[in-house]
Design a protein that fits this description.
The strands form two sheets. The protein has a four-stranded antiparallel beta sheet. It is α+β, with helices and mostly antiparallel strands. It has two domains: about 90 residues, no CATH class; about 60 residues, no CATH class. It contains six helices and six strands, in the order ααββαββααββα. A hairpin with a 2-residue loop joins β3 and β4.
């Protein structure tokens, strides 16, 4: 992890000194890694759109008869000449269109969505301890609770039922 941070720091310094990442990379983006399982692309969002980067990822995956799925987006440091952002993606087998025509597919999809539901909740409290009175000072707060589909559980369920 320390090596990655040092490399990122050197890249930021180089981009700032040379007036933008184009001078370092020779283009608006740089492919950090790329293979059959996926890759990572660093780019200057001032010069190239995220959509263009995702299209490049799809072109890369298409060489292996797969499609790209964005796994993580990291937004970096803003520099005078732009900024360094990164998209990590995985290459996955496309869903066969015949599976979607299968009458069992919608039932399996619904069942997996139900199995993958997770309750997500959180709260924040505003207020604090008063040093002058020695009591807790009420402020306010907020909370939320909702159900979300866990994508990892959903994919595992669909894979267990024979879908890619």
């Amino acid at each position: 992890m320390r090596t990655i941070l040092l490399a990122a720091g050197r890249m930021v310094s180089a981009c700032a000194l040379l007036g933008g990442c184009v001078a370092v990379w020779g283009g608006a983006y740089h492919v950090e890694a790329e293979d059959t399982s996926g890759g990572a692309i660093r780019f200057d969002h001032v010069l190239v759109s995220e959509r263009a980067i995702v299209m490049h990822a799809n072109e890369s995956c298409s060489r292996y008869q797969k499609v790209a799925a964005v796994e993580q987006e990291r937004f970096g440091v803003v520099l005078p000449g732009g900024s360094i952002d990164e998209i990590s993606y995985s290459c996955r087998a496309p869903i066969d269109q015949t599976t979607q025509a299968n009458p069992q597919f919608p039932k399996d999809r619904y069942a997996c969505m139900q199995e993958a539901l997770s309750n997500v909740s959180g709260a924040a409290v505003v207020g604090g301890f008063s040093t002058s009175t020695g009591f807790l000072v009420p402020g306010g707060g907020r909370s939320f609770s909702r159900e979300e589909i866990n994508p990892t559980l959903y994919r595992a369920c669909m894979t267990a039922r024979g879908y890619n």
